[in-house]
Write a structure and sequence with these properties.
By secondary structure, the protein is of the alpha/beta class. Helix content is about 50%, strand content about 15%. The longest helix is centred in the first third of the chain and has 20 residues.
């Protein structure tokens, strides 16, 4: 299957789904489309609540596309690429509708950022997490504010520093990343749609005010996240990072 971002609205529930054949990684084009869909859903009068999900039954999101990372040749190109994650997170932050995350599998790097930026994450017990950026010579600079806001500085630092170690879903639940963890995809989906249906019949004005409260103190992210994207955009050009990414790609193919 080819990569896509698509949405479907039914009974006030706007389901936004993304997919990429490489473990739901996110190249620049998908990031751009995802940010646009989230922005539209936030302005769409019929939308009462949003479900963010990915295709397939394995990885929720494996983060940045290695193919695109290795093709970056200038700081400007690096800034543009990493700004894609900034735009998605800021679109989720500014969206006046509550966003439920359906997390069916592993989250890596930017995928942890997406899971952190939803308002209520419901996961399966297969949704282990890892912030792998340092392992490829960069760091979780763009997604870091979203992750730190959700799980706290100590847990975020542990994830960012120990970049090769998976943390299981129970660890993520205890730290506050996941609101619920279920033993099967079926149970997870039942919980997702139960909550979505309840919210679709709740007061839109009250939910919009709740979002303002939840995200209070993040108004400067419109400037902060692009600045962080610039850091990653510079680091990705280093010889260290290029060698590390090529090693990861070779290992994945092997």
């Amino acid at each position: 299957m080819e990569a896509y971002v698509r949405s479907h609205i039914e009974h006030g529930i706007n389901t936004i789904e993304f997919y990429h054949p490489q473990s739901n990684s996110l190249p620049g084009k998908l990031l751009e489309e995802l940010a646009k869909e989230i922005h539209f859903a936030g302005t769409h009068e019929e939308t009462r609540v949003i479900i963010l999900k990915s295709g397939g039954e394995k990885s929720f999101c494996s983060g940045a596309s290695f193919d695109e990372l290795i093709s970056i040749q200038t700081e400007a190109e690096g800034l543009t690429f990493f700004s894609g994650f900034a735009h998605v997170i800021n679109a989720m932050r500014r969206c006046p509708k509550i966003i439920i995350g359906r997390i069916q599998g592993k989250c890596v790097g930017g995928g942890v950022g997406l899971a952190s930026a939803v308002d209520y994450a419901i996961a399966t017990d297969k949704a282990d997490i890892k912030l792998s950026e340092l392992a490829v010579g960069i760091g979780p600079f763009v997604v870091g504010p979203a992750v730190e806001r959700k799980i706290g500085t100590s847990a975020f630092s542990a994830l960012a520093i120990d970049a090769t170690n998976w943390r299981n879903t129970e660890w993520a639940r205890k730290k506050g990343l996941f609101a619920e963890v279920h033993e099967s995809i079926e149970n997870m989906d039942e919980a997702v749609y139960r909550l979505a249906s309840t919210l679709a019949h709740s007061n839109p004005a009250a939910m919009a005010e709740m979002k303002k409260v939840f995200w209070k103190g993040t108004e400067h992210w419109d400037q902060l996240l692009p600045e962080r994207a610039g850091i990653s955009g510079r680091l990705v050009l280093s010889e260290f990072t290029r060698n590390a990414i090529n090693k990861f790609k070779a290992k994945a193919k092997g």
